[in-house]
Amino acid sequence: MRAGGPSAPGGFGRMTRAEWTKFRTVRGWVAGMAAAALVTVLLGLMSAAGSHTSCGGPDDTCPVPPVGPGGEAVDDHFFFAHRPMTGDGSLTARVTSMTGKVRVPDRVPGARRLDARLVPWAKAGLVVKDGVRQGSTYAAVMVTGGHGVRMQHDFTQDTAGLPGGVSAGSPRWLRLDRKGQEITGYESADGRRWTEVGRARLPGLPDTAEIGLFAASPGDLTVTRADFGGSIEQVRFSETTAVFDRVELSGRVAAGAWRRDDIGVTTEADGVTPHHPGGFQESGGTYTVTGVGDIGPVVDGPRPENTLTGVVIALIVVIVVAVVFVTAEYRRGLVRVTLLASPRRGHALAAKAVVIAAVTFAAGLAATAATVSLGTGLLRGNGAVLLPVSGEAQVRLIGGVALMMAATAVLALGLGALLRRGPAAITAGIAVVVVPHLLATASFLPDEAARWLLRLTPAAGFAIQQSIPEYPQVLANYVPSAGFYPLAPWAGLAVLCGYAGLVLVLAVIRLNRRDA
Amino acid sequence: MRRELRAEWTKLRTEPGAGWLLTALAVLTAAAGAAVCASVTCPAAGCGHDTVRLALAGVQVGQAVAAVLAVLVAGGEYGTGMIRTTLTAMPRRGAVLAAKGAVLTGVTLPAAVLAVLGSLLAGRLVLPGRGFTAAHGHPPLSLADGPTLRAAAGSVLYLALVALLSLGIAFAVRDTAAAIGAVLGLLYASAVLPLMVGDPDWQLVLWRLSPSNAGLSVQATVNLDGLPLGPWAGLGVLVAWTAAALAGGGLLLRVRDA
């Protein structure tokens, strides 16, 4: 016996060791945990191997989206009328009109129909950018179709200015001011009293940058429900035309005309003719810019977590093993020996929780690391262009999903100790973790209901696998079935851990009050 | 057979958890359905939701309770060793399985009827407040409507079939924990498998083979042409699964030592 007085027999380290010995000597439990890991890997690889992506075109390869300064995939498609400016300076302009066109379904096949309206995130204004390369650093102040004045930079950053649109009766003045690497956006209703919209620091902006007028209009998104569950997304062409006047450049600007670039424009099948080109006209101090496209992060596309679809099924096995790890003691009467050996009952349960959490985390980590690295390789081999994910997000995905599996195991263990009956506890565990996630992501359930399920139930923990964040300034179908969870990754995991802790505490209270 | 029926009825009647589970089946199904209905809104522009299906969504939860009850009826005896007494007293093993199945169906059906009626009532009360009004093309739920009646009756049968399926699996697996894991795995995992394969043909095959996806198509009342299987054909898939599970469980019960 170890030194340390009467409490030594119940010392926590010894109890944890005892529980580990129990776990590793029951073949079924070890096999179960291995099965859970195997299910994760096999289902993940199966789904990755079975998914083929083709984008048409001459060689059937998918275009690789440009990458922004932060490493994320970006859309960088807009019409840019610009001039090179060296050093500090500013650009001021008045926007007197902003109109748009949106394609609507044809009534007669082949006859294009256009509606005269602006999509909410159509944007036009002033931008300073490191050249005309797609994905280069920029800062812009702009008027939008439905979200007022905004200051945006480097694709992911967005600051709101004053609300309201543009009309002949109420034009909007915009100003972009450069001081070193600091860009400030201003707006004004009359060109005299200016309000700051936002500031951006662009560390990568060279001394000579392109500054000018731009217009872009993202496609109009329509979402309809699919019969299988899930949804069908359609994106229709849209463009915007903005009229600028009173354009004033101050600073060291090269002499000459405005240069025009339809940045990111795609071409027709012939490879030369631009598809949906923008345009620029200048007449007596009035500039008309027409643009198609968007400047912002890409959120639609294959992502590394697409390979982890098997986790939800592996969790069923994890829940069974974790529950049986405690209920088997009740069935065999071993629990009386356990509690005699360690009369502090809370400690006995805590030791069990530590062991099941550690075992599940280890098995889960091995499974997620293997699945993500092999699965993304398979996806790429099948032609998919995965959205790039930062190293931190990758670690969060692999480690976080393993943590989520461990927290689920602790929750199931707590349910087992609380209910003491295997079937009831297993059902409860599956009903609160697996079922809500299935209902939310793979059923006919409406999106609002799905979001509430993923906020309130322990299934909120699945949010940890979302690697691409939701951006309010990018219009997309942000629904659970497309991999967008209502809670932030760590917040979702915290909800699951909260439930696990709560159930464990209730189980300890019950364990202390009742005979075993 | 009467002896067996009576014995099984007595065992089930005196099982402490059975009453609670049957109550839970009815209450949880209706409550989950009501929660789903309460979290949906139908904007003035209209929406394509299938209101009957929304109201009966709780069956997805209720099926787990039905499975637990069934697993306890069969597997519980293996845990305590009671099964040896049962088979000594009633050596006709096929009759024991039949009696257990009959008693289980007998208690599951009334609970399932209550669950489904409760769900429809909750939907009828909650949905109009969420914008599902007759003006938007969603008349209040009523059993006088043919498809609604079919969905309701089909859901009751679905719950009873899930109980029988679980009974068969429990006799094959003989351990309550493993059995419940297997049943819930089959019901829930097979529902998502179609989403995991990329190939549309395989998706369709897996969807049609999945007992829960195919079985619950009996609840659909709109857009029936878009379903991979008709409502009754879908329930037929579940019937086939149940028959296979009962046949397999019964066979193993006959050939193995208890």
Question: How is the topology of this model organized?
Answer:
The complex is a heterodimer of chains A (516) and B (258).
Chain A: H1 12-25, H2 27-50, E1 74-76, E2 78-104, E3 113-115, E4 123-129, E5 138-144, E6 149-153, E7 157-160, E8 172-179, E9 182-188, E10 195-201, E11 208-216, E12 220-225, E13 231-236, E14 238-253, E15 259-263, E16 279-283, E17 286-291, E18 295-297, H3 311-332, H4 334-341, H5 345-381, H6 391-419, H7 422-441, H8 447-456, H9 489-513
Antiparallel strand pairs in A: 1-18, 2-3, 2-8, 2-11, 2-14, 2-15, 4-5, 4-11, 5-6, 6-7, 8-9, 9-10, 12-13, 14-17, 16-17
Helix pairs in contact in A: 1-5, 2-3, 2-5, 3-6, 3-7, 5-6, 5-9, 6-7, 6-9, 7-8
Chain B: H1 2-14, H2 16-38, H3 51-55, H4 59-80, H5 82-89, H6 93-126, H7 146-173, H8 176-196, H9 200-209, H10 211-216, H11 231-255
Helix pairs in contact in B: 1-6, 2-4, 2-6, 4-6, 4-7, 4-8, 6-7, 7-8, 7-11, 8-9
Report on this structure:
The complex is a heterodimer of chains A (516) and B (258). With 516 residues, chain A is an alpha+beta fold. Chain A has 2 domains: 9-49 and 302-513; 74-297, Sandwich (Jelly Rolls). Chain A has 9 helices and 18 strands. In chain A, the strands form 3 sheets. In chain A, strands 2, 3, 4, 5, 6, 7, 8, 9, 10, 11, 14, 15, 16 and 17 form a 14-stranded antiparallel beta sheet that branches. In chain A, strands 1-18 form a two-stranded antiparallel sheet. In chain A, strands 12-13 form a two-stranded antiparallel ribbon. In chain A, a hairpin with a 2-residue loop joins strand 16 and strand 17. The longest helix of chain A has 37 residues, at 345-381. Mean pLDDT of chain A is 88; it is low at 1-8. Chain B is an all-alpha fold. Chain B has one domain. Chain B is built from 11 helices and no strands. The model of chain B has no long low-confidence stretch (mean pLDDT 86). Classes of the chains: A alpha+beta (516), B mainly alpha (258). Chains A and B meet through helix 2, helix 3, helix 7 and helix 8 of A and helix 2, helix 4 and helix 8 of B.
